[in-house]
Each structure stands twice: as structure tokens, then as C-alpha cells.
Amino acid sequence: MTSAARGGRTIFVTVGTTSFDALIEQVDTREFHREARAAGYDRLLVQHGRGDREPKLGRHGEDSADLLEVTAYRFKPSLLEDVEAADLIVSHAGAGSILEALRAGKRLLVVVNPSLMDNHQLELGEAMSQSGFCAMAARPEEVPSAFRAAAEAEPKVYPAPDLARFHRAVQEACGVAPCAAPEAAAS
Amino acid sequence: MPLVVWVLALLLLLLLRLACWARRRISTARRPPQRLWQGHPLPLRALAVLGSGGHTTEMLGLLAGFDQGRYHFQFVLADTDTTSLKKVGAARPDLVEDTSRFHAVTRSREVGQSWSSSAVSTARAFLECLTIVWAIRPQVLLVNGPGTCVPVVAAALFFELVFGRPVVLIFTESFCRVKSLSLTGRMLYALADVFVVHWPALVERYPKAQYCGVLM
């Protein structure tokens, strides 16, 4: 399954634990496949979660010059391997998925799910894209144009978490003396 | 007649106690750190609430660098949530070695549960939390916003008020709250000793909050 081993560049689409059929639909069009091919991608790996919609194009090796080679699945215990093997990630706007992609240092397109009625996803997507860490599509219909931006842009590296200030705040509130040599306990 | 005097005196005392507690506990502005446990033996008894899904992932991130020589953590888990424990086991096998550190409570509100039936389960969860918090006697309480954390915080503050068992309450807002606080965040804003947010824009709106850089 490791697509990197087979060469070529992979797009990984992930919806996390949710369902996001409108996103699957957007990456299952000939236009998207053509666009992705033109941008230098060969493979499309789709994690479609609880959704009803599965990608149809490109799964049986038909006129493959135009289409990406598509693999799809619902869930895996850990997506990390697929995240790391991918070259570009198209993700729903869940915090966990966004962070997993950015920590792996991947080019990322965040797609907000408007049917979730959860505007924090929009807020988070906007905040992350405005900070330059990723590209964003505020609605699935914006995926084609946002994909182009994501494929071309040179994203900023997401900084590694630094808990020193947080721990200092806790230590001060507790009155526990600050560490002389803060040894970051292995996680 | 003397009975009335006694009752009035007792009432006055209770009010005084409540006022003193409220004065120390409630504030919407940042105050200098209270250094509550200065000089106390280490490690401090610490309690963290592991809720569900993303909250648990974020809590594990926050717990990563805690000096175990200073804080000995125990954990409250929502009992319908088995993934949280698995998540902890995967990320921190050292923490699950001793399962007696984990305490399950009934979840106060399932997503989509009606408000009337959630009132009953909240009451039950609160009783369970009272028992657990009484036994653990936490000196530090670390929460990051799942519904499960509210009855735990209520129990700890109840003991602080009634039995004078003070606690340092640390609240960390969820990473996805960029411009506004979560319901739990709004509930605990005035009560927390340390109120941490992930996005600087929130500090402008909520001056008690502090931004501590990238934590996730």
C-alpha cells in the first residue's frame, strides 16, 4: 500500500471520523483529475469515513493517461502512514487532521464542511491559512481553484509545539519553583 | 429568641465564608499568580479530565512536558469513551501502566441527548465526581473543555468552598476556538486561576486569557 514505494506523487484526501460526501464528489471529477495530473500528481488516496459517497473514477485502470490512480477506504486505526506517504493532503477542517498534516510537513488544502454548522472549522481554517500554513476552500465547490493555489504555493513551516510558557504559567499559579534545566519529559 | 440569634449568626458566617471564597475565586481580570502550593511537598496531586475525541488528543499534547517529579497526575475519563483510554495508551504507555490512576464517570451529556435526560445524567455524574474528587484531593486541576470536565470542576470548587480544600484550576481552551470561547470556556472563565487560549485574538476579547505560543 505504500504508494511512495511505487514512485509517483500522491494526493491524500481525508475526512477524519466525519462524513463529507461533498468533498469526495469534488475530487471525483475528470476536471479535478486532469488538474492534478497537470500539477504533477499520479495517485489519489481517499479516506471517506462515514460517508455514502465513494470515488468512482480511476479505480479500474481506465484511460489512465488522464486519470489519477485511485485507492479508497473508510477508516484506519491510524492515518499517519498515509499522511506521511502523501505529497499533498486535502483535509476536512478538523483540528486533529490539520495538525497531523502540518506536523508531517505536508502541503495542505483545508476544506470546510458547511453542512456541519460548526463555524469554528471555518475560523480555524481561516486562521491557519491566513498564517500561511495551508490553503483553504471555504466550501467544497471552491476545491478546484483552491487546489491550484495549494499545489503552487510554498507553505510556511508549522512550528513545533513549545509548552515552556504554559508550564511556567502552571508553575507560577502553583508556586512550584521554575525548573532550572527544563527537561522535557519524553512524550 | 436565642435560637434566632444563633441561626442568624450561622447564616452570617456562611455568607462571610462564601464572600471570602468568591473574592479569591472569581475574577475576570488577570491577577498575579497566587503561588498556592509554595513550600508544599512535591509532587502535587494533579487531576486531568480526559473527555472525548479531539479534547483527549489536545490534553495529551498538554501533558507531554509536565514534570512528573512536580505533579503526580490522576485522570477522570468519561465512561462511554473507550477510545480515550486507548489513545492515552498509544501516546503515553507510561501513564496507563498503573490503571488505578484512571477514574471513570458517566458522561454528563452525549452529543444529541435531550436537555431533560441530560439533567439527570449530569446530576449523577456530579455525585460520582464528588466521590472521586473527595478521594483524590487534587491540588491542581487541569481541564480543556469537554462537557465531562464541568461536574469535576464543580465538585472541586464545592470542596474548596465548603471544606477549605483549595485547588489551582487550569483551563486550556480548545485549539479550534480562534475568535470566541467554547461554552465550557465561558462557564469557567471567571473561575479559572490560569486560562490559556491558542489564538492571540482571544486575549483581546478576554483579557484574563493568556496566549502561551504554539501548544499543539
TrEMBL record, chain A:
Q: Which species does this protein come from?
A: Prorocentrum cordatum
Establish whether keyword Chaperone is in the entry: no
Alphabetized UniProt keyword annotations: Endoplasmic reticulum, Glycosyltransferase, Transferase
The name this protein goes by in its record: UDP-N-acetylglucosamine transferase subunit ALG13
Give the source's domain of life in one word.
Eukaryota
Its EC top class is transferase
Is Transferase one of the keywords UniProt gives this record? yes
E.C. number: 2.4.1.141
From TrEMBL, chain B:
Enumerate the subcellular locations listed in this protein's record, separating them with semicolons: Endoplasmic reticulum membrane
Coiled-coil ranges per UniProt: none
InterPro entries the UniProt entry points to: Oligosacch_biosynth_Alg14
Q: Which Pfam families match?
A: Alg14
Assigned keywords, A-Z:
Endoplasmic reticulum, Membrane, Signal, Transmembrane, Transmembrane helix
Signal peptide annotation? 1-22
Q: Does the keyword Cytoplasm apply?
A: no
Membrane topology field:
Single-pass membrane protein
Which PANTHER family does its entry note? GLYCOSYL TRANSFERASE-RELATED (PTHR12154), UDP-N-ACETYLGLUCOSAMINE TRANSFERASE SUBUNIT ALG14 HOMOLOG (PTHR12154:SF4)
What protein family is recorded? Belongs to the ALG14 family.
Task: Tell me what this protein is called.
Answer: UDP-N-acetylglucosamine transferase subunit ALG14
- Organism field: Prorocentrum cordatum
